[in-house]
């Protein structure tokens, strides 16, 4: 496997060296799950773009550059643009084309129940409901205390004359 990776890396470097003089590549490889591209440009502060993903960087004043991306090309080939030149079909070391998607596995057991979250805010006040039926009549309450004596009322009108009594 190591021999295969070295061969792919060497092929990429050979292709880059013979294709264009604007770029000297040190690494074009998958390292720890990331695509790593390092090298030197022909001029300082020169833009370098990975055309497959659109990611860009710029070489330093010493003409060095580095791209480290969470990107793996599907075909293990990529295209770089340096200044106005485009380098096509650079091979990526430690890369293999992806196989077809596998079947989903069996559903696992549910995990333990988590703790309840914090209590939520109370909701908005609702509309009042319809008036309900009257309840049953309750028992009479205990007799209250006698109140204070009231003032005498005003004198009333004289009543009609009564009939004469029996003769004596």
UniProtKB/TrEMBL annotation:
Organism: Rhodopseudomonas rhenobacensis
Transmembrane regions listed in the UniProt entry: none
Cell membrane found in the keyword field: no
Biased composition (Low complexity): 59-70
Comp. bias intervals (Basic and acidic residues): 100-154
Signal peptide range: 1-22
Region feature (Disordered): 45-70, 94-168
Domain of life the protein comes from: Bacteria
Protein name: Collagen triple helix repeat-containing protein
Pfam families named among the record's database cross-references: Collagen
Keyword terms: Signal
